[in-house]
Amino acid sequence: MIQEDLERIREEAKEQIEKAVSSDDINQIKVNILGKKGALTAILRGMKDVAKEDRPKVGQLVNETREKIEQALAKTQAEMEAKAQNARLSAETIDVTLPAKRMERGHLHPNQVALREIEEIFIGMGYEVVDGPEVEKDYYNFEALNIPADHPAKDEQDTFYINRDMLLRTQTSGVQIHEMEKGRIPIRMIAPGRVYRADEVDATHSPVFHQVEGLVVDKGITFADLKGTLAEFAKGVFGEETKVRFRPHHFPFTEPSAEMDISCFKCGGKGCSFCKNEGWIEILGCGMVHPHVLEMCHIDPEEYSGFAFGIGLERIALLKYEIDDMRLLYENDIRFLRQF
Ligand code: DAH
Question: Is residue 222 part of a domain?
Answer without folding.
Answer: yes
